[in-house]
């Protein structure tokens, strides 16, 4: 059995950026044998939120490589050059390409690593492989679409599996009701409800705002309730000084702060990333409700300062018990479909790594995103996109992707230099046997 230097779980932007960095290290004389496993059948990035006219909220310069190496082949600028669209893009006079185009850029970059990525395989567990009292390797077990089990050995691991849809507690008991679905599944599912009378969108962020506007234009007669706890839809603050919190050097500041200081920073700047749509989108929503007043229509409702206290599955629809926070009263509303634009949580890597938990003192990471482990545990495990509490709000965004890949690569090289010489032929042969 081949022993890889690194296996990456997931092949989204974070691990693609890592693959790019490792490829450029090969050109500099460092040969790191890496392989990636992706559960989707082919590359796709937020495929079910590729809405018409949706655009990036992050500058194209924060791509897979530019901030690390502006001369890289894998920059967004070179992608445009290779696609013969560079001059036309310049004429757009924007830093924010469409989401469709950035997805195509990521797919273009990913395609260069088809030989080192297994698509359509889901990693089901990661097991320790011991040599004496020490764990020298990890056995990564995955299952493909034909239910065939695959096993691979590796000296290190990069976990970049993105977020898992966050489902509010009141909806958990209705997880099998196909009339309720998360924004992560929006485009795939919404076609089933083209003839319904009433849809609820729960959430106050960019996804909720985009979905509301999409439903407004997609269905002519369907009524839509936009439901959120906030009093108003607050715009994302992308002013220059605030945007400095997404700079790579701010990660050092956050990581070196005390736990209390980090918590304060996350709270102060929370609305730069969460529950904060683009101002243009907010203005479009306001205009929808204004035009309703002009024509005396009540097609859509903006139920601000409302909470969903209870959701019940009935034959005639999904019945909400809504609490109006303004006057402290409850009322009921029934919907034919419910879209939960309620965000994601990033801690589901813990279940994947549960067989390794005895070797972790805590689930804390060092500055280079490596999980802290006991001395007898030799493989390096890096987390991508799961370190917001220690590294700051930029951790789940594209902003630091290129720089983070470089930092992980340097830490990986250091780790491999320490463990490779200690691997004896006897230890390797015992594992293969």
From TrEMBL:
Coiled coil: none annotated. It holds the Pfam family Lys_Orn_oxgnase. Its cofactor is FAD. Pathway: Siderophore biosynthesis. SUPFAM superfamilies: FAD/NAD(P)-binding domain. One of its GO terms (molecular function) is oxidoreductase activity. GO terms for biological process: intracellular iron ion homeostasis. It comes from the Bacteria. Keywords: FAD, Flavoprotein, NADP, Oxidoreductase. Belongs to the lysine N(6)-hydroxylase/L-ornithine N(5)-oxygenase family. This is Lysine N6-hydroxylase/L-ornithine N5-oxygenase. It comes from Nitrosomonas oligotropha. The lineage of its organism: Bacteria, Pseudomonadati, Pseudomonadota, Betaproteobacteria, Nitrosomonadales.
């Amino acid at each position: 059995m081949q022993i890889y230097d690194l296996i990456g779980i997931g092949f989204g932007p974070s691990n693609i950026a890592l693959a790019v960095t490792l490829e450029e290290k090969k050109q500099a004389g460092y040969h790191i044998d890496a392989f990636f496993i992706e559960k989707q059948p082919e590359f796709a990035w937020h495929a079910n939120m590729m809405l018409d006219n949706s655009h990036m909220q992050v500058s194209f310069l924060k791509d897979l490589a530019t901030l690390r190496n502006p001369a890289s082949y894998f920059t967004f600028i070179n992608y445009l050059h290779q696609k013969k669209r560079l001059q036309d893009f310049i004429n757009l006079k924007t830093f924010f390409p469409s989401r469709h185009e950035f997805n195509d850029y990521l797919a273009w970059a990913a395609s260069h690593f088809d030989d080192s990525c297994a698509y359509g395989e889901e990693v089901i567990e990661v097991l320790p492989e011991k040599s004496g009292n020490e764990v020298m390797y990890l056995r990564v077990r995955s299952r493909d679409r034909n239910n065939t089990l695959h096993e691979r050995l590796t000296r290190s691991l990069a976990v970049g599996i993105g977020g898992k849809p966050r489902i509010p507690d009141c909806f958990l008991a209705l997880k099998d009701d196909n009339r309720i679905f998360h924004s992560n599944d929006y485009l795939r599912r919404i076609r089933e409800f083209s003839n319904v009378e009433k849809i609820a969108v729960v959430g106050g962020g960019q996804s909720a705002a985009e979905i509301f506007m999409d439903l407004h234009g997609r269905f002519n007669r369907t009524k839509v309730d936009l439901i959120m706890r906030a009093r108003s839809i607050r715009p994302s603050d992308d002013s220059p000084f605030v945007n400095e919190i997404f700079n790579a050097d701010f990660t050092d500041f956050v990581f070196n702060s005390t736990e209390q200081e980090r918590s304060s920073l996350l709270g102060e700047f929370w609305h730069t990333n969460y529950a904060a749509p683009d101002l243009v989108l907010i203005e479009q929503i306001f205009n929808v409700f204004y035009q309703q007043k002009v024509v005396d229509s009540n097609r859509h409702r903006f139920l601000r300062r409302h909470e969903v206290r209870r959701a019940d599955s009935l034959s005639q629809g999904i019945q909400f018990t809504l609490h109006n926070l303004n006057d402290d009263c409850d009322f009921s509303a029934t919907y034919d479909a419910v879209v939960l634009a309620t965000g994601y949580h990033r801690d589901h890597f813990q279940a994947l790594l549960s067989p390794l938990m005895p070797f972790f003192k805590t689930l804390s990471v060092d500055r280079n995103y490596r999980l802290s482990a006991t001395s007898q545990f030799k493989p390096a495990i890096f987390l991508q996109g799961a370190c917001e509490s220690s590294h700051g709000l930029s951790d789940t965004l594209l902003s630091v992707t290129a720089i983070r890949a470089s930092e992980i690569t340097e830490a990986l090289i250091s780790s491999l230099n320490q463990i490779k010489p200690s691997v004896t032929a006897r230890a390797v042969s015992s594992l293969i046997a």
